[in-house]
Specification:
globular; Rossmann fold; 3 domains; 18 strands; 547 residues; alpha/beta
């Protein structure tokens, strides 16, 4: 058996069910081997979208994402999607062909390992036929256990070599998630006992650790308010003590409550400037405890009182057990009055002036209306751009797997690919791809992929005919913004051209077509929502303050 075939078989044996990619000569054989072994291959139109599909698939399914691309240009095309997955700590394996060792003059030759490291991904490769299966197992283990995006380079000379008859895939027994040291847990318990108004903040690390149950048990013991980073959105859905998202998307009520906390326990959250709103959501006297698998992440974004290196779920369980052993139980923030305030709070309850016109719809009005029309079982995938706060603020989600937020690298154009991957992962849910018009234009080719798959997908475009973030940031400074404005375009027509359906929405009456489609959602629907361009997102000023 050739190594390429053995690699495909080994990955299916490890559990790979879906592979997303664009096939070229460098990855053709290994991709065919994956298919022959039983994996489903989804052919994208562009390599960046293929990696985004694998990323969205991983976030929505809880299983590692896998993508396959050609060497050289196939990999450089994929680099932006790989950067997003890497910075989001998505468990993902990117298979890429690579030039043979002797092909030093190949036009495809680049330093693929260096490219991976430059975008925070982990470089791995097949080194020889003798150790090929060990190389595959190591790359897979680093992706899954390390929660990392891993590039596995597949040199053509190694792919084409014969696998030794005695070669076997090494047995892999997944190790238990690490718990923090007992001394650190005791120190955290001391801080909890001294606090009066604790907050538990769950981030993407808490989502990956499936930490909801352990965090809620800890919250019940100490009387904590529950909140999430944007990437943790949905973690505490249904809890009467959930305040929603912390940061620029926080409602006024949430922002007030968070700023009153005297102890913030962050589990798997980086505490970056977006989550803390440049530090303003953490009170001046508040003490901060940060839990993360990565020791380098603790204290990297802001000073913390105490750091615990370990898995979010294990850390929460250990801390709750320590407090139980001490006989500690606190009321903290919790009261009947607070539960009532949280139930009545949130962005949907905040009054605003509807700035819809005869030709445009206020994006807040649009999103609130869609929240009422969409089925409860939904996956909301959000691209980057000025619009991105509105779906995060106004569209509810059933759980954290129902919210895919492509913002770690802050590139526009990644959301549609991620939405397709999420739709493949969860065909039982309606997937909503929330895009800006700028990001939609960058990803138009993947409308064809969506139609070919036949999965129900609602592509919601917040269309202000501009790169809105730049308009609203630089325009008030008196700078010309004509370079970031564009003529109005019929984006819904692209949906029809791809073989799906499309509708232009300029007012509430136009949503009747969307409502009718939602009764029996089939295939692709592109909603080109002409949003009022003068409505500025609440979070934008905070976001640009960093620049």
């Amino acid at each position: 058996m050739r190594v390429a075939e053995a690699v495909g078989r080994a990955l299916v044996e490890l559990g790979v069910e879906h592979v997303f990619g664009v096939v070229g000569s460098g990855n053709f054989e290994v991709t065919e081997a994956l298919r022959a072994a039983g994996a489903t291959f989804v052919a994208a139109r562009h390599e960046c979208a293929a990696v985004c599909m694998a990323d969205g698939y991983a976030r929505a399914s809880g299983r590692p994402g896998v993508a396959s691309v050609h060497q050289g240009p196939g990999l450089t095309n994929a680099a932006t999607g790989l950067a997003e997955a890497a910075k989001s700590r998505t468990p993902l394996l990117l298979l890429a062909g690579d030039t043979s060792a002797a092909a030093v003059r190949s036009n495809f030759r680049i330093d693929q390992d260096a490219l991976a490291r430059s975008v925070d991904a982990v470089p791995e490769r097949l080194h020889s036929a003798d150790g090929a299966l060990e190389d595959v197992a190591r790359a897979w283990r680093r992706a899954v256990e390390g929660r990392r995006a891993v590039l596995l380079s597949l040199p053509l000379d190694v792919q084409g070599a014969e696998l030794p008859r005695e070669a076997r895939l090494p047995a892999w027994h997944r190790s238990s998630p690490p718990a923090p040291p007992a001394a650190a847990v005791r120190a955290a318990a001391d801080l909890v006992e001294a606090a009066e108004r604790p907050v538990l903040l769950g981030g993407r690390g808490a989502v990956l650790a499936c930490a909801r149950g352990s965090l809620e048990a800890l919250g019940d013991r100490i009387g904590a308010l529950l909140a999430t980073s944007a990437n943790g959105h949905g973690l505490f859905v249904g809890s009467p003590w959930s305040a929603g998202i912390s940061g620029g998307f926080a409602s006024p009520l949430t922002a007030r409550l968070l700023s009153e906390a005297d102890l913030v326990l962050a589990f798997g959250a980086s505490l970056n400037m977006w989550t803390t709103r440049h530090g303003t959501l953490i009170g001046e006297g508040a003490r901060v405890v940060q839990v993360d698998l990565d020791a380098g992440a603790i204290g990297a974004q802001r000073t913390v009182e105490l750091g615990l290196v370990g898995d979010a779920a294990e850390a929460a369980r250990a801390l709750e057990a320590e407090l139980e052993a001490r006989g500690y139980a606190g009321e903290g923030f919790r009261s009947g009055a607070l539960a009532d305030r949280l139930a009545a709070g949130g962005w949907a309850s905040e009054a605003f002036e509807d700035r819809s016109t005869s030709k445009t719809i206020d994006p807040r009005t649009l999103t609130i209306a869609l929240d009422g029309l969409l089925p409860a079982e939904r996956t909301v995938v959000v691209d980057s751009g000025h619009f991105m706060g509105w779906p995060a603020m106004y569209l509810s989600v059933p759980d954290p797997a129902g919210f895919v937020f492509n913002q770690a690298y802050q590139s526009i154009g990644l959301g549609l690919g991620a939405a397709i991957g999420a739709a493949v992962a969860r065909p039982d849910r309606l997937t909503v791809a929330a895009l800006g018009d700028g990001g939609a234009f960058m990803a138009l080719a993947e409308l064809d992929t969506a139609v070919r798959l036949g999965l129900p997908l609602l592509v919601l475009v917040y269309d202000d005919a501009a790169y809105g973030a730049e308009v609203h940031h630089f325009g008030p400074q008196g700078l010309p913004v004509d370079v970031v404005r564009f003529p109005d375009a019929d984006l819904d027509a692209f949906g029809r051209a791809a073989g799906g359906k499309g509708v232009t929405v300029r007012g509430m009456d136009d949503l009747a077509i969307v409502e009718a489609w939602l009764e029996h959602p089939e295939g692709l629907l592109v909603v080109d929502a002409k949003v009022t361009p003068t409505v500025v997102a609440e979070w934008l000023e905070d976001a640009f303050r960093a620049h």
